[in-house]
Design goal:
The complex is a heterodimer of chains A (about 260) and B (about 350). By secondary structure, chain A is α/β, with parallel strands linked by helices. Chain A is built from eleven helices and ten strands. In chain A, the strands form two sheets. Chain A has an eight-stranded mixed beta sheet with strand order 2-1-3-4-8-7-9-10, with helices on both faces. Chain A has a two-stranded antiparallel ribbon with strand order 5-6. In chain A, a hairpin with a 2-residue loop joins strand 9 and strand 10. Chain B is globular and about 70 Å long. In chain B, helix 1 packs across helix 7 and helix 4 packs parallel to helix 5. The chains are: A alpha/beta (about 260), B alpha/beta (about 350).
Amino acid sequence: MADINIQDIIKPENLVYKKTRLMTDKTLSYCPGCGHGTTHRLIMEVVEELGMEYETIGVAPVGCSVLAYEFMNVDMQEAAHGRAPAVATGIKRLWPDKLVFTYQGDGDLAAIGTGETIHACNRGENIVIVFINNGIYGMTGGQMAPTTLVGMKTSTTPYGRDVEMMGNPLKITELVAQLPGTYYVTRQAVHTPSAVRKAKRAIKKAFENQLNKKPGLSFVEVVSNCNSGWKMSPVDANNWMEENMFPFYNLGDIKVDGKLVTK
Amino acid sequence: MGELRLMKGNEALAEAAIRAGVDGYFGYPITPQSEVIEYLTAEKPYERTGMVVLQAESEVASINMLYGAGATGKKVMTSSSSPGISLMQEGISYIAGAEIPVVLVNVVRGGPGLGDIQPSQSDYFQTTKGGGHGDYRLIALAPSSVQEMSDFVPLAFELAFKYRNPAIIISDGAIGQMMEKVELFEQMPRLTDEEIREKYRWATNGKLKDGTRRVITSLDLDPHKLEEHNLKLQAKYREIEEKEVRYEMLQCEDAEYIIVAYGLSARISQKAIQLLREKGHKVGLLRPITIWPFPKKQIDELVKKGVKGFLSVEMSAGQMVEDVKLAVNGRVKVEHFGRLGGVIHSPEEVVAAMENKIIGG
């Protein structure tokens, strides 16, 4: 076999995909197959495309993406568990021309931080919230999340989520869509190329809303997998997500330009 | 001379915040300090100076708004009272860990729990020993007059930014609610966004043009790096202890006995000293203005000068007395006196305590 020189391959005409420079070169801490890395990249691509690299401040949560600030190559703050919407409020109120976003998981946004989430949405803070919902607490080892499906097994619901004991999974995205303070609310996924393209369009719309000072908060939920927590292979996790998560957490826009989408 | 006004302590503090060029106030109403946010919303500081005022949904949200805004290099503050300050402890710990310069105000009321709404000094431990989790300190200024409620606002910001450390003004329900004459300082300018970006290169307000990005966090999963960070914090605290102790001494030159008291208790103790001196006892007052850093050296010098005993007077079950004891280190007698639960002691009670516990004890 002839020697292949990598330099012969790296040519502009062969370039089909390039990592945005707004992702650092640090190796992602996420499990193979996890949707976090893709979602990080989409946000950073959008910030780059909007030319807002120097004008963006991101807020990382507590959870699997606690180290998001190591991967997203913009100014970042690491918030206490659940408090990112309050942290982002503080930033945005004092720097109204900057792009401010939070990146939060389901435990962070819909359990411990429910109050901050609801009130930031209700005040109509001109920020973007990106919400990763994988129905489980990944970082702490697979415990029940507020969004864990009924009957779903986790390390704290080893016999499946029991509604009588733990209540129903919380559709916080539908809930915040009801608030006049939200301008754009959508639910996306990043498990297939077409889903990734749609999710990117949604994230871009959310950031453009903020840039154009549209009245209210833009909220993008990404239903994602957690193959480690769900104890499945990445492919099985994606299939399971399609079969079980999407029927409950329907993908698509919920509110656009301040108006609820009728289905 | 600056403008003279008759004001409540809480109002003087709020006016001082506007005049000190504060960029943002985030708070949640709680008695006995609700006048702070009421004054600020009525005064429309966004028209006077461009200052942002926002009522948060909770103290938990307020302190995290402070975290976010403070981490961009802006001058931001919050105020609350004891139960609210307890709620903020998580955020305060994060702010101390991430070295964000903010100013907090605690208008202390009786506790524990919901307690009451009367003045108290029972949050001394919480203020000076950490309060939240981890090894950290707050620079703590204790006003004993309405004038100091005003004067300590710019001072607290100066110290907070000098050391990139949260500073707290620890007052009480009486100092917050009482009206006194106050001389207001002149309006100070707010820094422009460009000045902030130039001055505070650590702040997260959008990457620098040279591509440098900043991260504000209190997290480091590597224990050795986190130890290094802690050692850096400790070195900063030692420097603050060395340079920033503030105190006032009254009639200590010839004193055989000393009352140590801060805030409202210091005001009451001034009268007690007068009464004790009328009775022929040579008693002086040491008033810590910074309760952290605590005036340890000053107490040590008083012991070396021959002071025979110290009475720590505080509206608590005896918290500051532990710091007095540490400074005295067993050489002479140290006792505590104070009423609890929001009851304010009278000068006569302080006199009796000094006579019974120290002079005759």
